[in-house]
Amino acid sequence: MWLQQRLKGLPGLLSSSWARRLLIGLLLFLIFYWYLGAERRGRFFSGSVMPGGAAGQCLLAEIHRWKSLVDRGEGIYSTPQDKLDTPFVSGNGHILIDIDSNKLWVASSSQPGSAPVHQTEYSPRVGIHLEGKRVEAQATMLWFRKGAVLSVRCASSAALQSARDCVTIREEFIAHRSRPNVYLQRIHISNPSDKAASLDVFYDNPAFGSKFSTSVEKLEDREVVLSSGRVPVENNRMVLVVVVSKKVNSRLQVPAKVEHTDNILSVVWTSEPIEPSKLEETFSTLRDGAKKELGELLRANVDELVVDHQQAWMDLSISGVEMRKITDSHTPSSRTVNTTLYYILSSSMAPLLDRRLSGEERIRLESSLKYADHCFSGHATMHAENLWPERVSSAAQILQLVTLWTLTLQKRGCKVLVAAGAHGAMQGMVLSFGGLQFTENHLQFQADPDVLHNSYALRGIHYNQDLINLAVLLDGEGKPFLHVSVKPQEKPVKLYACEAGCLNEPVELTSEVKGHTFPVMVTQPITPLLYISTDLRHLQDLRHTLHLKSILAHEEHMANSSSTTNTVAPVLSPSSGARSPAKLKMPATPAMLPELQGSHTFNLLAAWEPLTWKSASFSAAVY
């Protein structure tokens, strides 16, 4: 009876428009709630719920420690919910460790420009398995600035409800940057539960018919695992590979409320391509050398080895590309740029970081970085999607990318940089990204003026003893301008710069933190947007050799790109104290070329935080 009365009153209730809207909204919400499903609902409302109950919540707390690094562009991570189709690798040009596929890649030459292009049948990762029926959740991070792969696993029994009692296994994988033969796997196991945790530790045995074999040998007072094998190459030759690793116990007990750490050091020695007849002799040499190096490492402080590795990667990271604002789909994202740079550096040898490098050779390589004449010739690579690919899905694709970059740099006047190894590769990629080129007397920035709607910075450009930052920035109205800063030096070397056309007097670049700004001017015919040189007279003379038809402010060029109107800069009085991008429309004649002075230094702190040079401290902790 009660229900009948309520149903009779329903048409009257629905006659109200607000009631109809409320009912429709409720129905849509129920449909949406049903569509999400239980797992999706958790992610939608909490933002980041992981599967696996307590293990998932434990993992969520672990990867929260990585978030600040990822937000700063220092790494990327993959989780069960946000799985990246990206190879997680650590390398130094001599070896490349593919963590996901558990494969070792090696180079067959120690010459800069070579890459670890040979995949072996050796599995470098030591496996760790927690005994018993467990629910596990795992995440992996690629740490660009420290040249490492981090892995974390959280495990709990099915009955466990609290994430605080999960067993956590953290691992760090490092192909040492300044010790090209060294690979390190760091392990940290935390057992906060009330029960002891038992773990199996194992090496992957070579498959039947594999070209690799493994044995246990003595090294001084301890046992080591020696693995050896061969990789066939062309002309019926082979590359011999010997890996000597610290032996660990096959079973591990971690008592309740205890943390356990271990460091598994490995040394990888490889040969040049050899004939089969030299197999025994070469194997003996590689085995003895690898065992000797491992013996030295086992006596060293592992934390110091890690700090050396991190410092070497920070040294490489002095140079780089920073994406600040992207306004189109054709420009690579920060993640694409950082990942590409990391993959190329991980696959490039760094002779300048090798302790065995002679003093004479070091001086030669360092001088090649200071002024790479003719590099980079041609248009900027910023929009070359094959050089800055959004997706790389395997180690093999990484090595194809390395080959393409090496070929591109060599053909574009950067052979001396390629010969300098990873430092040179980084320098060449930075120069190429924005269209920077060294000539006999100056460094010129020849970016396409039609694509300056993106904001980015090129960091750590070597010019003699100095390091230069060059940024393309946008003002409050979206108009581009250039910002240049110089790293302070103990022995300052004077640098001068002028914008397109060099109509204004060149300005001396100082080490002021706020740097120097330059308007973007566009000439006809098109010439570089900026010139930098140590020779003031050269820049003063340059204006008379460009033979320009016109010069426009960037916004005028964009508005009148289809017109043929000739324009020239107005004569600014010396008292104006600034370089104005506004230009007068009048025929250009040699007599009108001004020789005026102005200041490039403006306080941009309110609009833009300038690039600064900071020292970094390093931690030897796992992470």
From TrEMBL:
Species source reads Cyclopterus lumpus (Lumpsucker)
- UniProt keywords, alphabetically: Glycoprotein, Membrane, Signal, Transmembrane, Transmembrane helix
Taxonomic lineage: Eukaryota, Metazoa, Chordata, Craniata, Vertebrata
Main subcellular location: membrane
Where does it localize?
A: Membrane
Q: Which InterPro entries match?
A: K2013-like (IPR018795)
Name this polypeptide is given: Si:dkeyp-104h9.5
The regions listed as transmembrane in this protein's record are 18-36
A GO CC annotation given for this chain: membrane
Q: How does it sit in the membrane?
A: Single-pass type I membrane protein
Pfam families named among the record's database cross-references: DUF2152
